[in-house]
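User: Second chain of the day. Same drill as before.
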Amino acid sequence: QHYYITNNLRMDVDRLNATKNEILAELHKDVFLTPKGMMKFVQLFVVICAFAMTTSAKGESTLLIKAAGKLKNDVEGVLVTKYPFSKYDWNHNYDNENESKDHAYKDMMFKDGFQSESQFYVFVGVMSFLYTLAAIISYAFYKKFEKMSDHFAIYFTKVDLISTVVLTFFWFLSTTLWSAGFSALRNDLNPPSDYVSLIARIRIEVGDDKVCEKFSCLTTDSWSKLYGSVVFGYLCIFLYGVNCWYCFKDTEWHAEPEKLVGGVLQIRTDSAGPGSAADMQDVNLEVGGTDSATIQPGAI
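Assistant: Same format as last time:
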């Protein structure tokens, strides 16, 4: 019985190794040595940072007015808002008979909501993440997909270019809108209108206009995550915009489309019209040193 178990395990391991070797043999690793391939991984990282920083960000403003003999106790309060930045919660303990409880106000609406800008920005980020991940998989298994479908090689480069152009436009639109929305959000909370009204009420009741002079009793977060999300958004515009050029070079619309397939650099020649079988040549490029290169052409 022990022999059969050991033999079965060995057969399973052999099958796994065979499957692994088959997958590795199908991988089109050369494409990730090109600028277009390497840029996909950079895009994936930047896109994740852009929408993750937005969804995890939280804004907070803190109120603290010392009693200084004019008030029964220190006045404290906190205002908190988070993604999608359409509502906020705030509280304070001024003029509170029960000191163990605060005046709390939940789900208060901003005068100008910022929900649409932030959600559209995150939507573009998620769609970019999914497409970039799918493109990386398509690049990696390009040979396999090309064997499975005759139309894959014809349409993939065009779809890749069009998708990259569309995502570039959406990143420009969403980042511009979210940058403006974030700026308006900061203005709304610096200082918050609710605390401005509360401070004005305290000043009247204590008869001192210097209470919380210049709103020095208010402290607002630095908004570092949202600043970062906007920066990464503009970086996405740059990365996807530059990638449009590399995707365009792979299509037949370019004068000399280049394709690195199986270590062979295919360069278009003018011997035939676009799209014909005779208009591509294989060029084996071997770099022997920093100053020399050998190019061996062969017609396909």
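The chain is about 50% helix and 20% strand.

User: Great, on to the next one.
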